[in-house]
Amino acid sequence: MNPHTLFARLRAAVLPLLAAVTLTAHAEPPIVAAGAGYKRPVSELAQAFEARSGHKLELSFGNMAQVLTLAASSGRVALILGDQAFLEAAPVLKGARLIPVGEGRLVLAWAKAAPAPARPENVADPVYARIAMPDPAHAVYGKAASEFLQRSGLAAALQPRLITVATVPQVSAYLASGDVDAGFINLTDALGMRERIGGWLAVDGALYAPVRIVAAVVPGHEQQAEVKALESFLATPEAQALLRRHGL
After folding, report:
1. 210 neighbors 103 (Cβ within 8 angstroms)
2. Among residues 29, 45, 49, 248, which one has the fewest Cβ atoms lying within 10 Å of its Cβ?
3. Between helices 39-53 and 237-245, what is the axis angle to 10°?
């Protein structure tokens, strides 16, 4: 058989298969991933976006190491919401377009049975026997809490009382159940569970590095219809008001 004829036949057979694979891949909604501490605002944003645009999204939450692993392995994560400094250092997001979302705030929260401190530094009082914080290696608010403890001079004294967990919501769950007396979480989570904890105080922003929250568009997904529509939605007054309401 003539090589040109053979190539033409192979091309005619393969192209429809490739088209079918492409259609199947795009039939699945893109994944929007975020740190677990932002589950409430991201879920609300997705719900409002889907109602306005008709586009569907899939959501995934976890510590940022888990989120980046999913992005690198699945090929379906189109947008990641999290700390700008952390995302900029991730190889999978090299050259990613960053959309400003807001500023995260660290707070000290306490359980209902615990006394209210006059200021965050009062967590050094022995009455706060068990203090939870997210993992500084994988959660931005764990890093912020660690910086606060170092800069305030409390790190050494509190070390025996600190309980490190993976994510902000795990700290919040311990606070709600009374398994810890106090814990470091973000303002977003504190607002979301205000009726289940004793209260919270904002930590002085000068005692930890700024937490700039952005949405990073995963390279290769810039032209995806859902992503472009979501970018436009994030700039709307509706989306901005929702983010402010959640402490961003």
Report:
1. yes
2. 29
3. 160
For β-strands 77-83 and 31-35, DSSP reports them as parallel
Count Cβ atoms within 10 A of the Cβ of residue 105 and give its class: 0-12 exposed, 13-18 middle, 19 or more buried.
buried
Predicted structure pTM score: 0.82
User: With contact defined as beta carbons under 8 Å apart, do 219 and 88 qualify?
Assistant: no
Rg (C-alpha) for the chain, rounded Å, is: 22
| pLDDT tens series, the chain, 248 aa | 554 554 445 455 444 444 443 333 446 899 999 988 899 999 999 999 999 999 999 999 988 889 999 999 999 999 999 999 999 999 999 999 999 999 999 999 999 999 999 999 999 999 999 999 999 998 999 999 999 999 999 999 999 999 999 999 999 999 999 999 999 999 999 999 999 999 999 999 999 999 999 999 999 999 999 999 999 999 999 999 999 999 99
